[in-house]
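Sample entry follows:

_____
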Amino acid sequence: MFYRLSISYLSIFLVIIVTLMLLFSMMISDTMKKETAKLNYQYSQFIMQSIDNKLIAINQTIIDELLNSEELALFFNEGSYQDPILNAKISSYLNALAFQNPLIDGIYLVRYEDKRVMSNRIFVPLEEYGDQPFINEMITNDPPIKWTNSRVFKELNTLEEKVVVSLVRKFPLLTGEKGLIVINIDKNELQAIITRLNDENLTYIEVYDQKAFLFSGNLQGSNNKKEAITTIQSPHTGWTYKSGFYSFKGELYSTISSMNYLWFVLCAFIIIIGVLLILIKTKQNVKPVEQLMSRIRSEHEGVLDTHASEFYIIEKSFDQLVEISKKYRAQASEITELNKFRLFKDLLERDITFSSMEWETYAKLYGLPVHFGAGLVAIIEIDKFTELSVRYKKNELDLYKFVISNVLCEITHQEGFSILGHEWLEYKRLSVLFSFDSSVMQPEDVVEKISKLLQLWISKHTSITLTVSIGRKVTSIEQIIESNEEALKALQYKIVLGNSVILRYHSLQIKEHHELFEHLNQLRNAADLYRLGKHEWQSKLSAAFDAFKTELLSDEQVKSLLYYFIFYLNLEMSKSPKEIAGLWGDNTATKLTVILDEAYDLNQLFQEWEDMLCIIQEKLKEKYAQGPYYHLIQEVRIFVEENYNNPDISLSMLSVKFNINAKYLSQLFKEIFGETFSELIQKLRMKKAITLLINTDKPIQDIAIEVGYLSSISFSLAFKRCEGVSPSHYRNKQIKT
């Protein structure tokens, strides 16, 4: 192991050292190049500014002379053309200008009026002057603002040609209608300036005008390879300056080579020291590893291949340790989540008491606040969950529940509040325990706002809706169960209040005790009317549903009443003739019960029941209409309902009135209406009597006569048989309630 580790460490060490050396060399080289380029740029700027300053000075001198010189004004004056004294004076003036500026090689004036040229040497007609082509070009075209490109100048045919650059200015300066002044500078003079400033053994500089190469700072030239570094352009002349260094071998190269040699010697020394340190440290570090390997081999003898490499054995042992650790962590996480779930469930559903130390332990273990200021429980229920269970798979519903939980937490966090815990204690209900500071005065309003934002987000982004019930604010851990009970109670009124609403228990006008007798009467009346084939059953049933909402009956109370309605309606329909009972069927009551069990809203329930019962009623009407006495018996029924309070009404009376056998009439009553004539009379009279007992203060005797009895005794006996109590006792009981 020692040799393998040493080789691996040394190879890495050497690679790193070599890489650092290369990077350092590249960095030094790059830095030197940048500094060289910067220095060369400053050098080129200095050369360019030196030449520009001299040329600018000449230009400024000429402009000043054009504006202020009396000699120039006299020369271009029309009355002074033939004055020899003036001409001599002008020649001296031009020589003085050239003397003041040593760069100036020559100056001459061109007078348009007599086409003559005067220089500091001669005074001749224009056609005899050697620079006539250039003068004609300047007369034809406006003179350039800057200095001209290099050109060949020859003042007389007998003189030698020179390469010059020229500055041309008009006279007068603004209009230029009288002539020109031309200043020539020998190119060699400019080159001499650069040569004095340039080290031709190390650097070079070349100047180009707008057309071609102008001159160089190296008089003798060089055979060394040029490396251009800087290119700049003069804003005054428009000339381009290119400068750089020669690639050469000399003292500088020797110096740099010596420095590099010392650098590599130093690096080699450092590498040797590093190798020795690595070997020493490797020897020290490998000892505990060898001891560890000895233990692993002894512990896993016969399990692991002891002849395998040490790293392979360590890797396998480590993998086993990681797997065991993962299992333990997963189990610990599951146990923690399960215990947290149980704690949350106990807080909401069990009447338990925590000591301050116990709660502090739980709080630290599950990340809960140590000090409980205030809180309340809200329950979020997914609406129409039965339909959703059919439409979606379980994993899709679980995803919806996950989204609801996360969105709730995000909204609560954005509003600046916190959730102590939230769990799906029932598959369609999310129980949430909100936590507040004691300074929050109306936490119910806060939770209602959060609930509205949650409902809005879920309805916008999904196809489901939510109903939220909110319990009251509590100020201790032990009171949380009370807030949860109130939230659960509020949900018991969901079928009456509808879906996608927010229920606050203390905002609901809940009565602890409801008198359900009147609702039972309404439902019985609706069932009777339905069996008789009258359309009024719909309004009666609708009125019963409206009463459920008005009196705010709980889901349990509503369903109990409607289960009774199904039972009573099925019982009454079973009393009908066989062919009628056959149309009703054995499974109609079952279908009504299924609709009731799956109902999530009273309006939806009423609509589905109404649609189903109307279809069956139409079939019953068709069947009834096929009987020979159907219409006649309907007329008899109407007559009985209008005259039930007549003490003399009987089957004999109806037989005479409607010309039908009394015994057959009784049989028809039983077959069509499911009850005998006497049962119908008694039911109608009792219904009216109950209304009078409840809503009026009339004496029992008067009520008996009004509903068709000749004496109060017979009325009381009949009432007790039907209702189980006497009329007076029934009235007193209703008054108390």
